Amino acid sequence: MRRWTAFLLLIAVLVVSVIASVAIGTRSLPLAEVVDALLPYRDSTPTSADAVGIVRELRIPRTALGLIVGLAIGAAGALAQGHTRNPLADPGMLGVNAGAACAVVVGVYVLGIQGPVAFMLFGLIGALIASAAVFGLASLSGAGPLTLVLAGTGLSALLLAITSGIVLSDSVTLDAWRFWNVGSTAGRGMDVFWAGLPFIVVGLLLALGSGFFLNVLSLGDDMTESLGSRVMVIRAVGIGAITLLIGAATAACGPITFLGLVVPHIARVITGPDYRWIIPYSALLGAILMLVCDVLGRVIARPGEVQVGVVLALVGAPFLIALVRTKRLAAV
Questions:
Q1: Is the peptide bond before 264 cis (omega within 30 degrees of 0)?
Q2: I need a surface site. Which of 89, 166, 256, 267 has the fewest CB within 10 A?
């Protein structure tokens, strides 16, 4: 009952966060104008017509994108910690972020791609290739938790070196990569949302279905095999879900750090060690934190804004330090 009550409470907080994300921005609009902008368009004054453009063309797309990206990163963070059995793991440790960044940079440098949708497609392709390489390398030694981390760390270092070499040698690529790499929902339209939505939906379904098997996997590989479950299949499905979730989220908004690391620990405080609850809780908490930090970034630097990736790092780093100092990192 406590879990269900907290789950419903999180949904209510998420609804409030969505409303706040639509109502609050770098430009202050009266609530009545925001509500009117959400209604079917009618002849109006220039001021209210301007409000319609701000709400419909800017705030609604970034709110929708922040919602699905937060859900994706939160769920992927829980999966990453479950499969690596590492409380300090985040999805980027498996090379997905580095693969997406490298593919975007190569696309800009070689093919001259431009625009968020092109970045999204190349980022997703890079994430898929990187995750396949990590799982392939790790499977040579049984795809255990340690080999996954080592393979992901090694491949990330290689891809980061390639990315750095390209952006340092070409100023045009550096400018494009710098815009994408900061981690932001600003400047993206509904086309990016619709492009990433199918991948995130499939990834979330796979993640939610993985909860029971992660509980079994936490008993150890030998025990999992003795209970009739196939470790390689479970890990392959988990890595596939992480790739779809983080690949689409990173390709759409750029790398979002700390979110996938922090929210599973918050979820465990409420749910305990059961991954059937940790994964959906982490998804909801990820969406809430993503939207709240996005709103904070718009408010604290008016009339400009601080990108959501920066705000999340400012929030996540002290939280991680506090966890380490109090020795409250849960064993996974």
A1: no
A2: 166
SS3 2: helix
Average pLDDT, the chain: 84
Q: Is residue 331 part of a domain?
A: no
For residue 43, with 0-12 CB atoms within 10 Å meaning exposed, 13-18 middle and 19 or more buried, which class applies?
A: exposed
Tokens of 135: 């799982």
With contact defined as beta carbons under 8 Å apart, do 84 and 148 qualify? yes
Is residue 332 in some structural domain?
Answer: no
User: Does 246 fall in a domain?
Assistant: yes
Q: DSSP labels for 37-68? A: HHSPP----HHHHHHHHIIIIIIHHHHHHHHH
pTM: 0.88
> What string of DSSP letters covers 98-123?
HHHHHHHHHIIIII---SHHHHHHHH
Q: Is 5 exposed, middle or buried (0-12, 13-18, 19+ CB in 10 A)?
A: exposed
CA distances from 168 to 37, 60, 157, 159, 160 (A): 44, 36, 16, 14, 12
Inter-CA distances, 304 with 64, 177, 292, 294, Å: 21, 21, 17, 13
> Residue 142: its pLDDT value, please?
63
Helices (H), ranges, 85-189: 96-106, 116-139, 145-169, 171-181
- Report yes or no: 275 and 207 within 8 Å, Cβ to Cβ: no
Q: In this structure, is residue 168 part of a structural domain?
A: yes
Instruction: Give the single-character DSSP code of 332.
Output: -
Helices 190-209, 60-84: axis angle to 10 degrees equals 30
Query: How many domains does one find in the chain?
Result: 1
How would residue 41 be classed by pLDDT, with cut points 50, 70 and 90?
Answer: low
Q: Are 156 and 90 in contact (CB under 8 A)?
A: no
Domain of 24, CATH number, reads 1.10.3470.10
